[in-house]
Specification:
Pfam families (chain A): BPD_transp_1
GO cellular component, one term (chain A): plasma membrane
Helix content of chain B: 25-40%
Helix content of chain A: 55-70%
Structural class of chain A: mainly alpha
Oligomer: heterodimer
InterPro entries (chain A): BP-dependent_transpt_permease, MetI-like, MetI-like_sf
Structural class of chain B: alpha/beta
Distance between the termini of chain B: 36 Å
Number of strands of chain A: 0
Number of helices of chain A: 10
Main location (chain A): membrane
Order of helices and strands of chain A: HHHHHHHHHH
Mean pLDDT of chain B: 84
Radius of gyration of chain A: 23 Å
Distance between the termini of chain A: 19 Å
Largest sheet of chain A: none
Radius of gyration of chain B: 26 Å
Subcellular location (chain A): Cell membrane
Chain lengths: 301, 566
């Protein structure tokens, strides 16, 4: 029995999580502000010259002070390319998470609330999705989209295709989590009270149940953001992602990879370091958030 | 008796919980207790009184930051080291046996009865397998489990709640302790099971010269088996002495109020005598906000508002690959509820009373039978007016409110949904009046449910249910989770609402004494059937059915003690 009111201590934020959160925020902020802070616009063909191609970082011998992190095989300023690339990577990642969360949360709410055959159907579809490897499915979706849409490689369509290809993979996790939480909430008396009131189902689901299951959704989202950015990089690395003239982090790594063994390491290493830092930072923050919002872990530490 | 060593001796016990801001919360203050061998001493109080903390302190089971700040505890003459909760020669499980509230969680579900019992025996007494088994059998006989040889091989889920609690008692007795700490041992059990467990405890205490510290909130249980009683409030002893004396002539004002709030079984009182009961603003708000509904409902009297005919709910039937017997949760229930009355449904767990409530509220689909409300058929698909007319409040005040929604908007929701704000008041004002009508401050509207106590939450639930101006309010165990004094106030509120607004109430409870105090007519249910139905007074004074008689006789009450001044 709990006697009196003893305030539960909040899980303190350890220094490494703080550092990770700061690094993550810094990268995201830099990416969002890339048009303002990057030295040149790497997507503008007039901003670079083939003569400057494959210049090393400025502090190395042969480096050019104009290009802090050197240039890529086209003579593009690598720093600018990374900033723009991170922006497009994060945009695609966030879009994919949003898409996955929307599909997953809606289906999870429906399945958990209605039960019966709706639940069975949604969960079997989820099982099918779970049994397909993420990359395979994403390649499939991207492939079909490319066949259907003529200018799939354009700056407009490529991110949308990527968001769809990645987002379609991740909804299962949301659906399963939300379904389980919804089943618990649906049996609670406050939901029964609004059912007796005769409130329409969307209102019960989104106004009453959703706010009570949102905690885990936010946690999954941070972790999935990292996964989505990674998938995007993989797809771009495989050549089905962003076009070379509008590089994402993955595209940059792919391009750099071709030159890595001829001593031109910087084209691949700097974008890779950025990607790894971003993914690691969001993962660490997400893990901490998960522990923070998990009532079972709260207070035991 | 004076020469014998006391089973438990507590002197000036003080338990503190350090708070983050260097202050500390005192859970138990300067408590002294004395239990002789063979004596059952009850520790009673409402939630937060610190009664469980005392039990935990004795067993060294205080929750983490909590500590014993001062005082001494000795069990059978051996002092407990208050810093560690242990002492030379004293071990939990050997010198002190413990019984907890929930018999399901106090047994390991993966162990058979035999291994639960023999583990302690082999560990503490060093018995070998054969001897441990013989001793386990002996213990099961002592706690009067039928067919003990067979039970040894059973797992907890194969036993009923009462049998499980008997196994827990057997385990507690396994090493012949001097003291038994029983924390709400019968709270999770039905009355008929409760009666037998109490009888067993009484017998064991006398036969084995066992001191029992009985921690409970139930005054009836205290009156039934305790020799002595200590009443606690906010960590302090309020009154202590022989049970008969304390319960029949309580001296302290708090003790008097607490005992006065216990629903009586012997006769019906117009209201529960609780201090500070009458509130002018509350009754004015009730008439103002709900009084106009009275006219809508037509004349109160003898006509039926709700008619239920041959209602059945069967689970597990009609399934394609359904195995086993279909389970009849509700079996041909027929009754009618008159306009403006409080109609009670009583029964033990599994009697089908909540299923019945679910059917009427539209949460459960009946397999068979029909319902009519105010002359109109009450089916699965309901009109908005029908949804408006039937509302419900629930048992658990912690799950019946949406924790993410402020109280004001929660009450406003039905007002907006049914478009009831056009009576010259805005929905916000209406919600505030409703809060006043259930005895809550107006500023409660802007707070979240977690800012309220259990009783206050139940009031919020009532306000929300009343917001649609229902004609019928279903109350499913509305006060079972509340302390007695809070229960008394909530029940008084429900009575007031009926009297002032002509609300019809379907009152479901397992507690016969509450039903006696509340209801005009009563239906008694068993195994999904209504076994007796009649006027409350007649039914309680001269029950016709054997089961009803048994139920009434088994309730632990204070009535056999001289009545306290009401």
């Amino acid at each position: 029995m709990k006697t009196g009111t003893i305030r539960r201590k909040r899980l303190p934020m350890p220094p490494y999580v703080m550092a990770a959160a700061l690094v993550g925020l810094a990268i995201i902020l830099a990416a969002i502000l890339s048009p303002l802070i990057s030295p040149v616009d790497p997507t503008d063909n007039a901003s670079f010259n083939l003569i400057d191609a494959e210049l090393p970082p400025s502090w190395l011998e042969g480096g050019d002070p104009r290009y802090l992190l050197g240039t890529d095989n086209q003579g593009r300023d690598l720093l600018s390319a990374i900033l723009y690339g991170a922006r497009i990577s994060i945009l695609i990642g966030a879009g994919a998470v949003l898409l996955a969360a929307t599909i997953g949360v809606s289906l999870g709410l429906l399945a958990g609330y209605l039960g019966g055959w709706v639940d069975a159907l949604v969960m079997r579809i989820a099982d099918v999705f779970l049994s397909l490897p993420t990359i395979l499915l994403a390649l499939l979706v991207a492939g079909i989209a490319r066949a259907v849409i003529p200018d799939a490689d354009s700056v407009f369509w490529a991110p949308i295709i990527l968001i769809a290809a990645i987002g379609i993979n991740e909804w299962v996790q949301y659906a399963r989590t939300v379904r389980a939480a919804t089943m618990v909430e649906a049996s609670r008396d406050y939901v029964r009270a609004v059912r007796i009131m005769g409130l329409p189902m969307p209102s019960i689901l989104f106004r009453h149940i959703l706010p009570n299951v949102i905690g885990p959704i936010l946690v999954i989202s941070t972790i999935n953001l990292a996964a989505a950015v990674l998938t995007e990089a993989t797809l771009s690395f495989l050549g089905v992602g962003m076009p070379p003239d509008y590089p994402s982090l993955g595209t940059l790594i792919r391009i750099g990879n071709e030159y890595a063994f001829s001593g031109i390491w910087w084209i691949t290493v700097f974008p890779a370091v950025t990607l790894v830092s971003l993914v690691l930072a969001t993962n660490i923050t997400g893990d901490w958030l998960r522990d923070r919002f998990n009532p079972k872990l709260r207070g035991s530490k | 008796m004076t020469a014998s060593v006391p089973a438990l001796d507590i002197r000036n016990l003080r338990v503190e919980y350090p708070l983050p801001d260097s202050d500390s919360f005192v859970a138990v203050k300067d408590l002294s207790l004395h239990i002789a061998p063979g004596e059952i001493h009850a520790l009673v109080g409402e939630s937060g009184a610190g009664k469980s903390t005392v039990g935990n302190a004795i067993m060294g089971l205080l929750d983490r930051p909590g500590r014993i700040a001062a005082g001494s505890i000795s069990v059978a003459g051996k002092a407990v080291d208050i810093t560690t909760g242990r002492a030379q020669g004293i071990r939990q499980g050997r010198d002190i046996g413990a019984i907890f509230q929930d018999p399901m969680t106090s047994l390991n579900p993966l162990f058979t009865v035999e291994s639960q019992l023999s583990e302690t025996l082999r560990f503490h007494l060093g018995l070998d397998r054969g001897k441990a088994r013989a001793r386990a059998l002996e213990l099961l006989r002592a706690v009067e489990i039928p067919d003990p040889e067979r039970r040894l091989k059973h797992f907890p889920h194969q036993l009923s709640g009462g049998q499980r609690q008997r196994v827990v008692i057997a385990a507690a007795l396994s090493c012949d302790p001097d003291l038994l700490v029983a924390d709400e041992p019968t709270t999770a059990l039905d009355v008929s099971v409760q009666a037998t467990i109490l009888e067993l405890l009484r017998k064991l205490a006398s036969e084995r010269k066992l001191g029992v510290l009985l921690v409970t909130h139930n005054m009836g249980v205290v009156a039934q088996i305790a020799d002595t009683v200590t009443i606690m409030q906010n960590g302090e002893m309020v009154e202590s002495g022989p049970t008969r004396e304390v319960l029949s002539q309580p001296r302290a004002p708090y003790a008097r109020a607490l005992i006065g709030a216990v629903p009586r079984m012997d006769r019906r009182l117009p209201r529960f005598p609780v201090p500070g009961d009458h509130d002018q603003a509350e009754s004015e708000a009730q008439t103002k906000v709900l009084g106009d509904a009275k006219r809508d409902t037509g004349p109160a009297g003898t006509d039926d508002l709700l008619r239920v005919e041959d209602l059945s709910v069967v689970y597990g039937a009609g399934r394609l690959f359904g195995r086993g017997e279909p389970f009849k949760a509700l079996d041909g229930a027929s009754f009618s509820v008159r306009r403006g009355e409080i109609f009670g449904i009583v029964g033990e767990s599994g009697s089908g009373k909540s299923t019945l409530a679910g059917c009427i509220a539209g949460l459960i689909k009946p397999t068979k039978g029909s319902m009519a409300f105010d002359g109109q058929s009450l089916g699965e698909r309901r009109s908005k007016a029908m949804h408006r007319a039937v509302q419900m409040i629930f048992q658990d005040p912690y799950s019946s409110l949406n924790t993410r929604m402020r109280v004001g908007p929660a009450i406003q929701e039905p007002i907006d949904f049914f478009g009831l704000a056009d009576r010259g008041r805005s929905a916000t004002e209406d919600a505030k009046l409703l809060l006043q009508a259930v005895g809550l401050p107006v500023d409660a509207a802007s707070r979240f449910p977690h800012a309220f106590s259990g009783g206050q939450r139940q009031r919020v639930s009532i306000a929300r249910a009343l917001a649609s101006r229902p004609q019928l309010l279903i109350c499913d165990e509305p006060t079972s989770a509340l302390d007695v004094s809070v229960q008394a106030r909530v029940l008084n509120l429900l009575k007031d609402l009926r009297d002032r607004t002509g609300l019809t109430i379907l009152f479901i409870s397992h507690d016969l004494s509450v039903v006696r105090q509340m209801c005009d007519r009563v239906a008694v249910m068993k195994n999904g059937r209504i076994v007796e139905l009649g006027d409350a007074e007649a039914l309680f004074d001269a029950p016709q059915d054997a089961y009803t008689r048994e139920l009434i006789s088994l309730i632990p009450t204070l009535d056999h003690l001289a009545a306290p001044a009401a």
